[in-house]
Design goal:
There is one protein chain. By secondary structure, this protein is an all-alpha fold. The protein has one domain. Helices cover 66% and strands 0% of the residues. The protein is built from five helices and no strands. α3 (22-31) crosses α4. The radius of gyration is 12 Å and the shape is globular.
C-alpha cells in the first residue's frame, strides 16, 4: 500500500498526517501491510475488528484520509 501512496503523489501528505496525528498513525500502521492474499487468510476477531476500525473511523480512519485526497 505504501507504494500506491507514492505513485499517487501522497507520500508527503501521509508523512505529515502520521507525524501530526498519533491516532491516524496507529490506524495507518494497522492497515498499511494488508495484501490481497490477506483477505483469504483466517484472522482473529480482535484483529479483524481493529482492522475495520482503522479503515472506517470517520475522523481518523484511513478511508477518510484517502477520500480527502482522491
Amino acid at each position: 500500500m505504501s507504494q500506491l501512496v507514492g505513485v499517487a503523489g501522497l507520500k508527503d501528505e501521509l508523512d505529515n498526517k502520521t507525524q501530526s496525528d498519533a491516532t491516524f498513525a496507529v490506524n495507518w500502521a494497522i492497515v498499511k501491510d494488508w495484501t490481497e492474499e490477506a483477505r483469504y487468510e483466517r484472522h482473529g476477531e480482535v484483529k479483524v475488528r481493529d482492522f475495520l476500525r482503522a479503515i472506517v473511523d470517520r475522523k481518523k480512519g484511513v478511508l477518510s484520509w484517502l477520500r480527502d485526497h482522491w
